[in-house]
Amino acid sequence: MPELPEVECIARGLREGTQALPPLPGQRIVRASLRWQRHIAQPPPNTFRRRIRGRTILDVRRRGKFLVFPLDEGTMLIHLRMSGDLEMAPRGSPPGLYDRTVFFFEAPWELRFSDARKFGKVHLLSDPQDVLGALGPEPLDDGFTAKKFAARLAQYRRMLKPLLLDQHFIAGLGNIYVDESLHRAGIHPLRRSDSLQVDEVHALWRSIRASLRTGLRHNGASIDWVYRGGSFQNRFRVYQRAGKPCSRCITPIERIVVAQRGTYLCPRCQPEKAR
DNA sequence: CACGAGACCTGTTCGC
DNA sequence: TGCGAACAGGTCTCGT
Question: N or C: which end of chain A has fewer CB within 10 A?
Answer without folding.
Answer: C
